[in-house]
Amino acid sequence: MKAVRNFLFSGLNKEFLIFLFFLALSGAFWLMMTLNETMEREYKIPMRLVGTPRNAVITGDLPDTVRITVRDKGFTLITYAFRPLNFKFNNYADETEGQGMIPVADVQKQILSQLYGSSKLLQVKPGKFDFYFTYGASKKVPVVFRGKITTSKSYYLAHTEFFPSTVTVYANKRQLDEVKAVEIVPFYYRNLQDTIRENVRIKKIRGVKVMPDMVRLAVYPDIANSRCSGSIGMRNWSCASSYPAGTRGSDSIVVTVKFTKYSVPTLGLSPFIFTLSSLLVCGSISIVTLLRRMTLSFSFTS
Fold it and tell me: pTM here?
């Protein structure tokens, strides 16, 4: 302890302590001079809508914060701690329109009641204070895509899908009649190759409440210009043949193949017609029975 005291009060350190003392003194003097000057300062005050009926659905909220600019001496400005501004629903709600408007003068009145007489209110933002509501009026509307998706060179965009595909919107009667669909917040994706699934938000509409306000977007790409080949047993296909009675092996038979028992949706196959020439009919075996014992080879480009 004695060593520390000797170190602090040695000749060199004594000068340093004196320097720190006068530095702090000059800083305090500068601060007092600054706070004694007239200046402007911005404040944020919470804003609330109170007394909302239980059966009312607020579809467009009031701004949650009022920003004000006040001018006064610095000593006065640092003492402000504003209380939230409260406005009663019934005083401003228009039941017919489903909308409420709070005049700027009413907002200023509550602010001025918290200011000292020497302070001057210079600005109030935003300049409009309104809210929207409904007493349960709603309907379901589809969700539509907004944005741009590009695929890689060998792919194309097959389709997009939303889960859920419809949402419930709440609004006053006039707005409810106008809303036919809702869009998502613009979605952008480049060089798509694989299926993607993303949560996306619904684009906000002033005065309209959307539930849910987020949906899941699924985007499905597919391969472009792909060539496929292979063989499938004909017993899996439904065959309808057109031939005259007593057909012989040297005759041609037109057969229509329809995919009823066997489906390959990923290949995109559809019913087609082909011709069998020089078909040998053996004994009592029917044409259809014989066809079902064959194997169909296929090759196509999608």
Answer: 0.62
